[in-house]
Give the backbone structure.
Amino acid sequence: MSKSGTCYLVGAGPGDLGLVTLRAKECIEFADVLVYDALSSPELLNWTKAGCEKIYVGKRAKDHSVPQDQINDLIVEKTKAGKNVVRLKGGDPMIFGRGGEEAAELAAAGVNFEIVPGISSSIAGPAYAGIPVTHRDHNTQLTIFTGHEDPTKGFSSVDYAQLAKAPGTKVFLMGVARLREITSAFIEHGAAPETPIALTRWATTGSQKTIVGSLASIADIAERENFSSPAVAVIGNVVKERQKINWFEKRPLFGKRIVVTRTREQAGELSKALRDLGADVIELPTIRIEGPPDRHEFAELVTHAHEYDWLVFTSPNGVERFFDAFFASYADARSLGNPRIAAIGEGTAKKIREYRFAVDLIPERFVAEGLIDAFKKQDIENLTMLWVKAAETRDIVGEGLTALGAIVDNCVAYQTVAETEDPTGARARLEEEGADLITFTSSSTVDHFFALGLDWPENCGAASIGPVTSDTLRKQGMKPTFEASKHDIPGLTAAIVKHFQAKRG
């Protein structure tokens, strides 16, 4: 009989990836089975290991969620089968997340379980809207209640008479659909109609939106703004603090939906930079990196890298593949010998430095032609060079170096292929919600994006990292909205901010 595994009831936080706990990330990474709801951060699914069974049990649009008793049976069954099961819930599983019910079922079944708290939207949502739920000038009490009770009970256990009389801040979740009913109940039981109230939807994400009013006016405001769930509501004088400390919604890219088309592994750097600036990021990888077509030849060239005068790297992917293969053969970095090292740009150089190797040459222009121009200032005639490249890379570097008298060997470290998986539903989200900007960091991201056959969103721009990528966009019939002057991720990020600042101006 197989040994029972462990079920982890994990809080996924309110939406911002930075608010996921380290323990939650650790659990997702070692999970054999991931049972999840409709998450504010679908990128969490990218943290799962290869072979993890992902089971969606939440509710999207008009699709009905899996009944709770079936979810209970599922997590018990998978845990008894010896699996490490992660039951992933938005916010905190024990704050109106039915985590207590699931824990009771696991306990009754006699299986191991652990509760991993998460940051609840009941506190994080207001904080990102510039509203502290407690404040010495306004309150000494905080009450949290749900606006959506179990419909099978047949009665309400929310005592609005007590809530209306209670001092301090009141926060309620899942109550947008019953907003008028809830606010009317407060007023009916003695709460002042002019009491401030704020609602924040999709809190802590780039899609966040906040409306402010009074108990008497907020339902009309919500209808006029077509304000829908999911949202957290705050009632009380603390709402007045928003005028002074509304920080998140003032970020330079707030309210802008931006698509990142890089590989799933590489998307993080650009996505984080954009999210930190307030953008709503859709990670839609169009390519993925696979090993070289001829693995034996690649390994042979890496093994003999110490025999070359120069190593030339033209992408961070090439750097990573090369050094991973090198250290698989050699335990000592000194085995590389003393070749000089060239990088096409700062991004590639940064990756080289991560392996504790210095970079001897970086061109002023981070393109193949710029690299050749930089080598023209060197005496490389009859020097041996190992060019670490992708299978589909242009031959400009090899041909240019050869023309300068160097002896060049091509070391094909990887190949770029189409990304066929879409575990986060990014393509559907782009089609349904549109975007303000789609970013392209290489020609391959351009070609593979257009190969998906998706309609280009209305009023959406195309951001290019450099001239080669821009040329590929034009070949696809799409004029780049702008091109980064510095052809790396920080340069592209700066260009995006400048673009939207100019549009606001």
